[in-house]
Write a structure and sequence with these properties.
The chain has 381 residues and is an alpha/beta fold. It has two domains: 196 residues, Rossmann fold (3-Layer(aba) Sandwich), CATH 3.40.50.2000; 169 residues, 3-Layer(aba) Sandwich (Rossmann fold), CATH 3.40.50. The protein has 16 helices and 15 strands. It has a seven-stranded parallel sheet, sandwiched between helices. The chain has a six-stranded parallel sheet with strand order 12-11-10-13-14-15, with helices on both faces.
Length: 381
């Protein structure tokens, strides 16, 4: 197959969507498919495909949105027609790609990777949430299939009127994220001795990640356990505010590749309080690294964590319960056994199987004899 991915985020950016897309693209190429990536030029990604001009997203530093380029897409796809188009982000670029593909009768599918509508309340625009949801529903329902990462998202979107939803769970690289990456010299840099416990957060330091609760959990754990250290890996607009609130915290900035794997594995407990995830790749990365994860019981945590067996989950949005889970993890006499069970769970989550299922799902669409007719589009209104 010849496939085109359309996205506003891609490697080398460090976020769950970019990492997922990079893994899907490389996996499909390994299986002999030709994959182009349409993405903003500012990313600097060394990729086959097409770069487009972009503009920064207001209020979200480091994020750029590609300009809609219908004429360029129509011209390119008329000359080199893909068998199917996968649109990963719901911006103007994604909308333009859907319009262009439907105009040419090319099958188009979408991925639902981010709950953008939920972000609006964190950026003081809650009244726009119904408008954002209506736009997302309209855009995704133009596609033949919308891939979602877990049952929670599928059920929620179905209730909002989204059609043609299909599960595409996430995988994790268990060779990169591995307990053997634990580094005692790094722990010494943090001021942690061999017997001291370290809790870590990895991700964007932004409002939608609910980091004030992570900080409260770390502060409570520090009061309970002498020698405890709280480490935050990442960058974002809330870093300065959180450093002021939690001066004893260790803020190390963004880390990549082997370095971020080393940071994961050198901790003991992973704290993740976000309420806006469609999945939460970092949960699986932490489990693969042999950490006890404390998270709300939805998305990746609901799918992979069994409370008290390989991690700890709190009822969604219950802050007191989340703090209690942090204390339970800190005081667990079976923490080493629990961390080993987390690693064992991650070993069963294979990217190869995910990509095989994705490939088979795409073939169902492209091998249909009436596919072109089915995707021919009347003028969009």
């Amino acid at each position: 197959m010849k496939l085109t991915f359309v996205t506003d985020t891609y490697a080398p950016q460090l976020n769950g969507v970019a990492r997922t897309l990079e893994r899907l693209v490389s996996g499909l190429r390994d299986r002999g498919h030709r994959v182009d990536v349409v993405r903003p030029a500012v990313l600097g990604a060394q990729e086959e495909g097409m770069e487009v001009m972009s503009f920064p997203l207001p209020g979200y530093e480091g994020v750029h949105v590609g300009f809609p380029t219908v004429a360029r897409l129509l011209s390119r796809w008329h000359r080199e027609r893909p068998d199917i188009v996968y649109v990963a982000t719901e911006t103007l670029l994604g909308f333009a790609a859907i319009h262009s593909a439907r105009t040419l009768g090319i099958p188009v599918v979408t991925g639902y990777h981010t709950n953008f509508q939920q972000y609006l309340s964190y950026y003081h625009m809650p009244r726009l949430e119904p408008i954002a949801m209506a736009y997302l529903r309209y855009l995704h329902n133009l596609s033949a299939r919308t891939y979602v990462p877990c049952e929670d998202v599928r059920d929620a979107l179905h209730g909002e009127g989204f059609d043609n939803l299909a599960l595409l769970p996430k995988g994790v690289d268990t060779d990169l994220f591995h307990p053997d990456k634990r580094d005692e010299s790094l722990r010494q840099e943090w001021g942690a001795g061999p017997a001291d416990l370290v809790a870590i957060y990895v991700g964007r330091i932004a409002a939608e990640k609910n980091l004030p609760l992570v900080i409260r959990a770390m502060q409570a754990m520090g009061r309970l356990r002498p020698g405890f250290k709280g480490v935050l890996v990442g960058e974002g607009p809330k870093r300065a505010d959180l450093e002021a609130v939690y001066p004893e915290g260790i803020f190390v900035g963004p880390k990549f590749g082997e370095d971020v794997a080393r940071h994961y594995a050198s901790a003991d407990i992973f704290l993740f309080a976000s309420e806006t995830e469609t999945f939460g790749n970092v949960v699986l990365e932490a489990m693969a690294s042999g950490l006890a994860v404390v998270a709300y019981g939805y998305a990746a945590a609901r799918r992979h964590i069994r409370h008290g067996v390989n991690g700890f989950t709190a009822p969604f949005s219950n802050e007191d319960a989340f703090l209690e889970c942090g204390e339970e993890a800190l005081n667990s006499p079976h923490l080493a056994k629990l961390r080993a069970a987390a690693r064992e769970e991650a070993l069963g989550v294979c990217w190869e199987r995910v990509i095989d299922n994705f490939q088979a799902s795409l073939r169902e669409l492209t091998d249909t004899p009436a596919a072109e007719e089915a995707f021919s589009s009347p003028p969009m209104v």
